[in-house]
Every structure is written in structure tokens, then in C-alpha cells.
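Hi U.,

Before I forget, here's the chain from the pilot set. I'm dumping it here mostly so it's searchable later in email.
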Amino acid sequence: MTLSRLVPLVCALSLAATLSACDDDATSPTRQTQVRFINAMSNSTSLTLSINNVPLGGAQVYQHFTNCQSVNPGTFTLTVSQAGTTLLTTTQTLDSLGKYSLIATGTTGAPTFIFVSDAFVYPESGRALMRFVNAFSGRPSVDAFVTPDGSNLGASVASNILVGTASAYANIPNDRSRVDFAPNGSTSTFAGQGPFDIPNRSAQTTIGVGSNTTFRVPACY
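Structure:
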């Protein structure tokens, strides 16, 4: 049997076909994607993401997340489970060299998935990138503000973030800052976090969950 016939057979039989490099062209370089799983499901105990029935990065408690994991590009069945019980199943295409965050949110009784690309261009020195996910309960649309201490909100850095979606990355100073959320078109904040230090040229996501909880997750680099 020739090498060109052996390679797809090995890919089909090996666990590495899903979570590590294997290509039906033996001369092609590996072009893997990066995936991070985030548990933003407010009443969960711990959740596990599986890709084609292979667990990715271990179980994560609420407001925790996996490291960025390498996965072959392709179209996969993604399953989120709690203590062996499947809560969510969806199909997603992961592009070659892509970077993604997979966010489980809602509740165990009404679970949802938010699937976002982590692709970004590094900002200049003295700046950073931050985007915002609206997974709040009962907040159909929100605005996000980044300020030194929240006392003078000024203009929002991201507006009209619909529930179940993420904003684009906002280019912000890498200063010690606070993040606040308000209903779209308002400056009456209902959730916030900080002040905290924002690393130079970093990229991160602030996720709003429940009624007024927020937490931050770094992008896959």
C-alpha cells in the first residue's frame, strides 16, 4: 500500500484525527485552529465541551475556561455536557488557522451557545483590544463603557450589543480601567468590573452573565 493510501487510513482510525495534526496530503504542513471553551452558564456545576465526542480541555466550572486547544480544521459536532448529560449540541465549521471561543451560556434548563472568532490584528503599543459579550438575563441590548473609575462614562466603546452576541473589538488604552454595562442608549449602569490593569497590546473579552455578573477571558493568541 502506498503512503498516500496509508495516511487517510491512519487519520480515520486515530483520535489525533480530531484533536491533532493529520492530513491526507503527507507533504502539507499542519494548519490547525485554536479553540477555547468558556462556561458562562449561570446555574451549572461544571461543563465539558466535546468535539466529535472527544472531550476538549476538561470540565470547567462556572466563569472558568480551558486553555486554547489545537484542533484540526473541519466541520464538527460540538456537545456540551454536565455530569454525563448532554445539554447542547451544535455543528460548527472551524477554519484552518482560525481562533475561536465557544461560550456556553443561559441555564441548564435553557442552554445556549455563543460561537465567536478570536481573530484580531495586534494594536499599536500603548493600546489594547477588548470586546463584550451580552449573555445577561433580561437585557436584550446593552452598551459597554471603559473608563478609569466609572465616574464619568462618556461615550460607549461598544453599543447595541444584542443578547447572545459579541461586539467587535474596541481599541482602548492599556491603562488601569473599569468596564461598565448599561442598557442600550442609557448611562445607568447595572453591571461592572474593575478597575484592573489592561496589558499592553492584549486582546480580551468581557462577558456579562446573569443579572449583573461580569468576567474576562483572554483571546487565543
